[in-house]
Amino acid sequence: VDRVPLAPRLDTLEGKTIFLVDIGWGGPKAAPSIYEEMQLWFAQNMPSVKVEVRSVIGSYMQDQPELWKEISEKGHAAMIGIAG
User: Fold this and answer.
1) Do 15 and 77 touch, CB atoms closer than 8 A?
2) Among 39-43, 57-61, 72-76, whose mean pLDDT is lowest?
3) Which three-class secondary structure string do you get for the chain?
4) pTM value?
5) CA 14 to CA 8: how far, in whole Å?
6) Are 35 and 22 in contact (CB under 8 A)?
7) Mean pLDDT over the full length of the chain
8) Backbone phi, then psi, for 77, in 5-degree steps?
């Protein structure tokens, strides 16, 4: 397996766009509520940060080229996982 280094940390989140991506584990209702809470927190505490919530299409085991392209073109950071 070829190792791929992590992306460097951002110096700040101010003025950045962050994507929260639900991988769908636990069903369609498992994570959206926590991601909505996180989006609300950012709106109240760091209003210059734009938060975009997305879900993978199909299984989390499938590649998501359109989503990865959108994140790379419009985002500065992404949190990809589950929250159920």
Assistant:
1) no
2) 57-61
3) CCCCCCCCCCCCCCCCEEEEEECCCCCCCCCHHHHHHHHHHHHHHCCCCEEEEEECCCCCCCCCHHHHHHHHHHCCEEEEECCC
4) 0.81
5) 16
6) yes
7) 87
8) -160, 160
